[in-house]
Write a structure and sequence with these properties.
The complex is a heterodimer of chains A (653) and B (297).
Chain A lengths: L5 E6 L3 H4 L4 H9 L4 E7 L5 H13 L4 E6 L2 H14 L7 E5 L1 H5 L5 H20 L7 E3 L5 E4 L3 H12 L4 E4 L14 E2 L4 E2 H14 L3 E4 L2 E9 L2 E8 L14 H5 L3 E3 L8 E3 L1 E2 L11 E2 L14 H5 L12 E7 L1 E4 L3 E3 L16 E3 H8 L20 E8 L15 H15 L4 E6 L9 H10 L3 E5 L2 E6 L4 E7 L4 E7 L1 E6 L1 E3 L3 H7 L27 E3 L9 H19 L4 E3 L4 E3 L9 H5 L5 E3 L5 E3 L9 H5 L5 E3 L4 H12 L4
Parallel strand pairs in A: 1-2, 1-3, 3-4, 6-7, 6-18, 7-10, 18-29, 20-27, 21-22, 21-27, 22-23
Antiparallel strand pairs in A: 5-30, 8-9, 11-12, 12-17, 13-14, 15-16, 19-28, 24-25, 25-26, 31-34, 32-33
Helix pairs in contact in A: 2-6, 3-4, 6-18, 7-8, 7-15, 11-12, 12-13
Chain B lengths: L5 E6 L5 H7 L4 H7 L1 E6 L7 H5 L6 E7 L5 H13 E7 L1 H5 L36 E3 L6 H13 L46 H4 L15 H4 L17 H12 L7 H10 L4 H5 L18
Parallel strand pairs in B: 1-2, 1-3, 3-4, 4-5
The chains are: A alpha/beta (653), B alpha/beta (297).
Chain lengths: 653, 297
């Protein structure tokens, strides 16, 4: 409790506040408010001079509470609290009244705005009056980092964290790391081979002494809190010892089962025992138990019979690995929107209407066609090709409302690749707008458009009809206003990207949110782009939203930096502004345990609710839900709110 | 005040349950041994206003008042009783909160058989018309609470402080030993359709139980008998609105995630039958709602 020595500081924020609020009048009015012994206004309270004014006044007037009326507390509350703490005031006795976002920026009448600023500042004085001295809670923490997702983003994050001297557990659900980037032919705009730039990173991640690679694995349970997460990982059996496997391929030769090959986007077949792709890491065959005729009980056993090195072991069982980690990075990537949703284009139905990723595999020198582009239906060469932008993107009525960001540029690249190998071929691109954001992308795409070797048609494709030996694409050229009907051999749909399968369930496992399109949600769209609302859990790459490789890699490094921020601390501190339970009132009804989004409150055997202060974020959901008023948040108590409300709504004397 | 020497019991317009609860109490003989019973009116008219006027001011040491007030006559009687009694106990849910009768306040006035007071036809708790010294909650008050009242008020050396409620300070849940579930509430259940699990918290199972928002002291007799608490002992100290608080708690308990989560939450909450009658079963007259103010719709 303040003994009535409160100082009030009103910020002009240049003209941001001053233009709509008479800050001097606010200061003069507050000078006469009970308990206030000092009030002044200044241009920029957040400047060093402004902070010094606060420090000086605390010392000179022996202040036991401070109110800064300025911008939102999420901007500078920490700045001001640090300043106050330097001269001995408990940091939790400084409160910020938001008179910028909640006053000057939203009002047009200076008189009314000034009155509102006075009332909000008075309310903050009332809060400070009843604020207690609090001490941050110290927490020990683990120094390992969990990275989920072994695509380029996850690899980047894992290597960055490991290079800083912290152990990393890199979990990938597929049998090899590499992600979608490993499937790509070349990357825009430099046209360098995707694998050539990716595989060194894959090798680095797999050889790094500080990275423990768990492929064919999924996180099944997460408990704990920032600095102290316990994660359970389930590693599926591969039935092949990667240390013994010599990649001789004899097992695959005798395997009687063929299934669609994921790495080639279903354009080829693989056996039940297979090498995911040539540069797979770990470099080993794996036995897909779902496709296999049967391991338990054994139905076939031919692969083991032919394995010269004894690498195949049918007794391998799933492993549950438990790790304690201090920080978590989720980089679970994307999938393509299911093309069978685009019935008007024959997506998923016409074999010669393919997705952009299928096209990447078709033109890849080591892909199913060895780079010799042919129609999947009849194997005939492709001389006429159409690319369709925004296949599922930017279509809020029927598909996805957002722009998938990468399609414009990769379609330009794919059209260029086609023209390079088919100089007499005809390539048409149907687009809505050309959105080639990214360094060098616009120049890259415009070069291709300007070369006139590719026909760019502005308009949506209405319908695609499979005529057997060719496809007819019906559309409109919105620039000329004419209907367009062209016959082609192959159509490539630039499919929308969507969060990878299982993203929403994974978000639940990690107690984080997804946005309206199912991508992992960041804590703040601008200032906290790789953080989540769960402290210690970070997101990066396509899982957060559509982005290209450089942005994904940058986010991977950003998430690594945020993780290292935690791992490098001697001990973590947690805000003491947490919920407390009045044992005299708590009946153990358990309503709070449901209201809490952080699993931070439990009804103990004693029949009393107990708060895990380290998990508690002080959000107050439990306090609001508590039917008996037994729960309060420290320095956010009901008596404080009652006094604040009275100060806001009360009549002027 | 020294030990009380006299008691009077006035049961206004209730169901008779309050009188019965005292009759069957194992403290009745102790009570009657300790103090002189001035009168025991089991219904209005047993003791008339003219008869009450015969008593001197503050002549009766303790008056137990059961039943709600609702018309000019009952208000006038309550005011008379206030004059002749030193201490008044609001006995039972009707006197305490308006009780079940208070649900009439939600019905269109034209459909009511209540006699009108000068303000209209509606039920009020006793404390709305006269000062009340003590509260004995319950519909009817459970034996343990009656015993506590008799012991503290009539047999103790000193009177309990004014405002004492002869019930627990914690909610019913503190006396209930059902265990909690970890799963969120996704459907509202009703007894006639699905029998409850006898060991799991009724609210967690989806049966609307007012235990969390209701004063204990009853040994959680209803939940222990597989019946949800209906809230007869009224709100805890510091809770302004018992019904609003359980609805607020329900809103926190029902939770769906995913894109249509909010819609599904709303559907579950909308499926609560007779929300006012369930959440405010005994407390409409003493709640923030108080009564219907507009008959047009």
């Amino acid at each position: 409790m303040s003994q009535g020595r409160i100082g009030v500081f009103i910020c002009h924020c240049g003209m941001n506040i001053e233009e709509m609020v008479d800050t001097h009048r606010v200061a003069e009015t507050l000078k006469n408010y009970p308990g206030v012994v000092h009030a002044e206004d200044y241009d920029y309270m957040c400047s060093e001079i402004g902070q010094q004014k606060i420090r000086d006044a605390i010392v000179e007037h022996k202040l036991d509470g401070v109110v800064v009326a300025a911008c939102t507390p999420s901007m500078h509350q920490e700045t001001f609290r640090n300043a106050a703490e330097e001269v001995g005031l408990n940091r939790y006795r400084l409160e910020v009244a938001n008179i910028r976002e909640q006053v000057s920026w939203v009002h047009t009448d200076r008189e009314v705005a000034t009155e509102k600023a006075i009332r909000l500042t008075r309310a903050a004085v009332e809060k400070v009056r009843m604020d207690d001295d609090l001490t941050p809670i110290a927490v020990e923490h683990a120094t390992k980092c969990l990275v989920v997702g072994g695509g380029i983003t996850g690899i980047q994050a894992a290597v960055n964290v490991a290079n800083n001297g912290y152990d990393v557990i890199l979990v990938e659900k597929n049998p090899s790391i590499g992600g979608h980037m490993a499937q790509l032919s070349v990357t825009f705009p430099t046209l360098d081979c995707a694998q050539c730039i990716l595989t060194p990173r894959m090798v680095e991640a797999s050889r790094h002494p500080r990275i423990k690679l768990l492929t064919y694995s999924e996180v099944i349970d997460v408990s704990g809190y920032i600095g102290n997460y316990t994660v359970k990982i389930r590693k599926k059996p591969t039935y092949v010892d990667p240390d013994k496997c010599n990649l001789c391929n004899k097992c695959a030769e005798v395997c009687p089962v063929s299934v669609s090959e994921e790495f080639n986007e279903g354009l080829s077949q693989r056996k039940a025992i297979y090498l995911p792709f040539a540069q797979a890491i770990p470099s080993s065959y794996v036995l897909d138990e779902d496709a296999c005729l049967g391991v338990k009980p054994l139905r076939c056993g031919r692969c083991q019979e032919v394995c010269d090195v004894g690498a195949i072991n049918y007794d391998m069982a799933p492993e549950i690995i438990t790790e304690k980690v201090g920080a978590i990075i989720l980089a679970t990537g994307y999938d393509l929107y299911d093309p069978s949703n685009l019935t008007e284009y024959g997506g998923g139905k016409y074999p010669d209407v393919v997705t952009s990723l299928q096209f990447e595999r078709m033109v890849h020198p080591s892909g199913p066609m060895k780079g010799d582009l042919r129609r999947p239906s009849d194997g005939r060469p492709v001389n006429r090709i159409a690319f369709v932008h925004c296949a599922g993107s930017r279509d809020p009525e029927r598909h996805k409302p957002y722009c998938s960001r990468i399609c414009c540029t990769y379609t330009a690249k794919q059209a260029l690749l086609f023209k390079k190998s088919h100089s007499d071929g005809e390539a048409s691109v149907f687009y809505i707008d050309i959105r080639t954001d990214g360094k060098g992308y616009e120049e890259f795409a415009q070069n291709i458009i300007a070369s006139q070797r590719v026909r760019y048609i502005r308009g949506k494709v209405a319908k695609i009809v499979d005529e057997g030996d060719h496809l007819t694409v019906w559309g409109a050229d919105t620039l000329s206003g004419e209907r367009v009907e062209i016959d082609v051999d192959l159509v490539v749909l630039a499919m929308a990207v969507v969060p990878s399968k299982g993203t929403e369930e994974m978000a639940k496992t990690f107690h984080i949110n997804v946005d309206e399109n199912g991508f992992l949600k960041e804590a703040h769209p601008k200032l906290r782009p790789v953080e989540t609302t769960t402290a210690g859990v970070f997101i990066a790459g396509m899982a957060q939203g559509p982005k290209d490789i450089p942005d994904s890699v940058a986010q991977g490094s950003a998430a690594a930096a945020k993780a290292i921020e935690i791992l490098s601390q001697k001990e973590l501190t947690h805000s003491p502004e947490v919920a407390t339970v009045n044992e005299e009132l708590c009946s153990g009804c358990g309503v709070c345990t449901r209201a809490c989004p952080y699993d931070a409150i439990k009804v103990e055997r004693s029949g009393i609710a107990v708060v895990n202060e380290i998990l508690c974020s002080g959000c107050g959901a439990c306090a609001a839900a508590c039917p008996t008023g037994a729960i309060e948040v420290k320095n956010d108590r009901r008596v404080q709110y009652a006094a604040m409300l009275a100060a806001v709504l009360g009549r002027d004397e | 005040m020294p030990k009380p020497k006299s008691v009077a019991i006035y049961a206004a317009n209730g169901c008779g349950g309050c009188s019965q609860s005292l009759l069957v109490s194992d403290r009745l003989s102790a009570l009657l041994d300790a103090v002189h019973p001035v009168f025991w009116a089991t219904q209005p008219g047993d003791v008339t206003q003219a008869e009450i006027e015969q008593y001197d001011d503050r002549e009766i040491d303790i008056l137990l008042y059961a039943g709600p007030v609702y018309d000019d006559e009952s208000i006038a009687t309550a005011q008379l009783l206030r004059r002749v009694a030193k201490r008044i106990v609001a006995y039972g849910a009707c006197a305490h909160l308006g009780g079940l009768c208070g649900l009439a306040n939600l019905a269109p006035e034209a459909t009511l058989h209540l006699a009108p007071s000068k303000d209209g036809r509606f039920i009020q708790p006793l404390s709305a018309v006269i000062a009340v010294d003590y509260i004995l909650p319950g519909c009817p008050p459970p034996p343990a609470m009656i015993a506590r009242m008799v012991d503290e008020l009539f047999l103790g050396d000193e009177l309990p402080p004014a405002g004492t409620v002869f019930a627990a300070t914690k909610a019913v849940c503190a006396e209930c030993d059902r265990r909690h579930l970890a799963t969120p509430l996704t459907a509202i259940k009703r007894f006639h359709a699905t029998p409850p699990d006898p060991e799991v918290c009724l609210l967690d199972q989806g049966y609307i139980c007012l235990g969390p928002v209701t004063r204990g002291g009853c040994a959680a007799v209803c939940p222990r008998s597989d019946r949800p608490c209906t809230g007869c002992a009224g709100p805890l100290a510091g809770v302004h609105d018992q019904g609003g608080t359980i609805l607020h708690a329900l809103a926190s308990l029902v939770r769906f995630t995913g894109p249509d989560g909010q819609r599904r939450e709303r559907e579950v909450l909308d499926s609560i039958p007779d929300i006012a009658g369930t959440a405010y079963k005994y407390s409409v007259a003493a709640s923030a709602l108080k009564r219907r103010v507009n008959d047009g719709s």
